[in-house]
Design goal:
The chain is α+β, with helices and mostly antiparallel strands. It contains three helices and four strands.
Length: 82
Amino acid sequence: MNLGRSWTPSSLCTHAVIQQPYIDGIALEIFEAAGFHVHCYWLIPITEAEKDFALEHGYEALAELFERKALNYLDPNRASLV
């Protein structure tokens, strides 16, 4: 997904991917209340290079790269991991 602009003015993250949260597994993904099930997903800002990597190697390869290099999801000024 192209964000149309960077996450913050100084950020390299101009694209994003939607991913199921995996830190707490199903407990974080599905919220249940009053008989309703709400599925929660993360919108993860990524750089153009990371987007290109995912297009060439597949999203799973990008997710593995993020895990291997310990992506800081909350840092808008992070460097590209590719």
